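Below is just one:
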Amino acid sequence: MSRFPYLRQDFAASIVVFLVAVPLCVGVAVASGVPAELGLVTGIVGGQVTGLMRGSSLQVSGPAAGLTVLVFEAVSEFGVAALGLIVLMAGLLQLAMGYFGIGRWFRAISVAVVEGMLCGIGLVIIAGQIYAAAGLKAPETGIGKIVGLPGAFTDAFGSTKALTSLAIGAGTVAVIVLWKKLPKAVQSVPGALAAVLLATLSSLAFSLPVATVKVEGLLGVIQPPGADAFGELASPALWGTIIAFALIASAESLFSAAAVDRLHDGPRTQYDKEMIAQGAGNTVCGLLGALPMTAVIVRSSANVQAGAKTKASRVLHGVWLLLFAAALPSALALIPLPALAGILVHAGWKLIPFRQVAELWRGHRGEALILIVTAVSIVAVNMFEGVLIGLALAVVKTAWEASHLKTEVIDKGTGPIQVYLSGNATFLRLPKILDSLEALPQDRPIEVDLSGLHHLDHACRTALENWAERHSAPDTDPVKVTTAEPMEATTP
């Protein structure tokens, strides 16, 4: 017992995490367009492979709502058979990034882009799962899902079956939201699990006409990538998806690790090792043909709040998932699909950073704009290109702010006109600099003081030299430039 001083706390926490994980694993799989058991396979690997490795001791990994949209797009384009290959290659890419020390650099990604990514994902998940809750077929594009919602509600209210299905989905969301207001003793059962159980019992008791989860058996859904699948690696589109899986899963995992570190006083996350652990887990998931994994903040926070002290809790939760998938697979067939859609709608809602948007709008409107553009781009285009648009906008904003320049002109009426430049003089500000200088009179001596500049790039230096050479009239003293380094045009 001395070797496992926290076994009691970790055992209790593992049960809580298991109960939280079951409906989420199944819900994410169904929403991704793959058999429900594949979600459980990824949860098992997240517990027993990634859970055993070093990195973040209390973070729990498994299938995540944040990758649902990307997985669904990949399955729609390449098929379920190619999913294993995509996840396998993404895992190997994560391993390489971890070994080469790239994991820590993910902390440098703009928070606005990450929040925008989660917001866009959340909007697409909510819109798509409303169709699933009503038992209707959703449009393929994100913008199509949102634009088509009024028509979907009209169709649902005209069909008793669709209305019943939608009511179960709405009831699931209501139970999850209201569950937190019940006594602490009741809340020992996770709200999502309670909602699924109540929805299942209700549909059975009243024989409600709703679709349920299709069960194929754990061994029946495991499909390792075949030799033919590797031939698909010649496709640039497939590599785009692989890179998107690797980068987005890594970013979500490492940002989750930073959030989990704030919840406990234990060992801090070792980012490169966590990247390796995530890569190892995704490599195994790929070999099994399962869903990709990330660290999941819902399960991780439940793990911490349940009193977990070591990685044993997440490993044990993987054991319970394995036992459940092996011994009770038929129980999945009783779960109504609209209940799982309700869980995903709630998960998508929690991905939308309402508070962060408001705070950024008050203090950093440029960052708020990046967040909004990233989210809208993901909805309008797709996940990968939306994130790239957000990152490009963040780089442009940073470059613009880094080139902040102040120009001050002092004219006392007599004597030379004094011009002071301070800040960063880069080519982005060159038009402003030249507009100010060329507006100065040519028949007056001019002194330009550049000592306040932190940076003067080659384009600005060359432009200033050319301006100084040709500005002064023939009978006027040449422009005098003061700087930390002598400039060629300062002499007559």
User: Anything to note?
Assistant: Residues 66 and 230 are 26 Å apart (CA to CA). The chain has a mean pLDDT of 86. The longest helix spans residues 236-261. Residues 405-490 form a domain with the Transcription Regulator spoIIAA fold (CATH 3.30.750.24).
